[in-house]
Every structure is written in structure tokens, then in C-alpha cells.
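Researcher: Here's a chain I'd like modeled. Treat it as a single chain, no partners, no ligands.
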Amino acid sequence: MIFYENLFESNKKFYDEFNKKFQQVLSSGWFILGNSVETFQKEFAAYHNSKHCIGVASGLDALTLSLLAAKIPEGSEVIVPSNTYIATILSILHAKMKPVFVEPDISSYNIDPYLIEEKISDKTKAIMVVHLYGKSCQMDYIKQLCKKYNLILIEDCAQSHGAKFKDQLTGTFGEFGAFSFYPTKNLGALGDAGAVITNSDNYSEHLKKLRNYGSAKKYYNEIIGFNSRLDELQAAFLSVKLKYLDEINLHKRKLAKIYLDNLKDDFIKPIVHSDYYDVYHIFNVRHPQRDKLKEYLLKNEIQTDIHYPVSPHKQKALEGIIEGDYPISEEIHNTILSLPCSYGHSEDDIYRVVEVMNKF
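Model: Modeled as a single isolated chain. C-alpha cells:
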């Protein structure tokens, strides 16, 4: 069986270093907001040439706390792509704001920058872009819109660790770059974890308070805060893997190229353009008979996944919250299939997937 993702295989190269870090954290006797978190924050900020990194408990919290740190008024509208993962939308709702959907570009799966302006109103205070599947959004025009309308730009980088647009890393275009380190990410922890990068001293200080009960000094609470701290042990593990992030991305790009060069044209493959450095957190294809294709591959001992099977506006949780029709989003969700493409897969694995798929 070729599994969609085998986290043991993807992480086994790092296990000796993980064990050393575990012993260091254990023997330190300090498990919350200690040296490991401080070290990783400095390393992750340096990787992005950003001034600050604030470790938090998850990618969802990274987005929610970014909205709150920006001090956007409750009830404000936040523009977001109509085909993102539910966490992006939940962050806006948790911050007591209103998500306004914009359809994606069918070729890139990212928010269509040229459909954004028509959704901007007097209530719009922010744009939350999502660099989906490991491909950056087209940031030039989006930046222009933010400047024109004085909007906060928050980047959901949960799937784009190391991805670039015109040689600039995702997470560094806006006021906030929000990251998830969920175990399957290109930079994945061994549990839930997240972080925000920012160049603003004020935003950084506010985020640090928000993640820690609203406190900058123990037992002195200045604002209404949360318990959303990056775990000391996860930070230690992330410091190990950050050293290998570029190598992980290169490996996934090599596997993606096998798909791109060898899959027959019956499958709609991700677009490739020189402006984008894609890191293929997810390598997907689209096909009108997606479900049959998935079943066929499983019968041939190839496991796949769907990111994501239900368009957000069709989710029961968002009934009565999201209005309107989003046919492009639905087309993507109804036809997309994620193929094996992880650090734990070999080139032979991918050639095998290609061989089987081309017989479909």
C-alpha cells in the first residue's frame, strides 16, 4: 500500500534529534514559554527575515489572535476565499467579525484578486488571503487594494511554509503571517502548534498578551486574553525540522515534477509559473470522475485524500451565516483529489502512482 501520508516515514530522519530535544526539555524542568519557544521564535522569524514571531497553540489561534491584535471592530467585514479550509472562516467568526466570500481562480485555486474589489464595502477592514496547497496568492494586486482601501492584510500560511511569490516568502506581505504546524504540514510538529510573524512591535506585544491570558507580567492581566501558547516540547521539535524545511520542500517539488511531467492530460494538474515557488503541501489533480478515480486507486493499493469534500458555504455549521452561490468553489470541491506527495514518499512511489493513474 502506498499511503497518502505516513507520518512515521516522514519524520524518522529526525527521531534521533527529537529524542535529544525531548531529554533537554525534560531535564530543564521548564515546560511553558521557556527557552525552546524563545529559540524557535527567533529562528522562524529569521527564516522569514521578519522582526517578530509569536508562538501560539494552533493555526486557527494564529489567525484569530491576528484579527484581535489588529483591533478591528467587532462586526467588521473580512474578505476571505470561498474555498478555504473551515479554520480560516472560524477565525473570523471567533473574532466576532463577518466573513465575505470571494471566489477563487479556477486555475490556481487561490482567491481571484480581480474579484475582490467588488466585495469591498465601508465595513471591510481586512483581507485574509489563503496560500492554498502550497502556492502563493498573486500578491501584487492584493497589496494595491489593501493600500487603496486602507485594509489590514492577514496571510493564512498554514499550507505554504517556504512558498514564494516573486522570490518573497509568504507571510511577509501583510501585517500578519499566520502559520499552522499541524503534523502533516511541510513544517509539521508532533501535535498542534502555530505561530504569527509580524514586523510590528505593537502587534507583537499585543499577540504575546493575547496568547497568555492577557498578561505580559505573571498574575497581572491587562486585557482579556486566551490560553494559546506554543508548547515548549513542540517548539523544540520544530527547531529540529526548520533546519530541513528547504530540503523537505525540494523533495516535494521533485515528486510533484514527476506527476507534472508524466501524468496524462486527462487529469487537470496544478499550474506552474515562474513567479511562484510552489512547495506542494498538497499535490492535487482535478477530474470529473473524482470519486471513481479515488476508488480505483484504492483498489490498486494507493491511498488518496480530498482537500476538501464540502465547499464551506455548504457546511452545516455555516448555515445562515454565509449567503450566496459559489459555483467555482463547488466545482473545485467536487472534482479535486490529493495524491501522495510527502517527505516520506520515494520517487518510485510516485512513478507507481503515475503508472496506475494513466491506466484509468
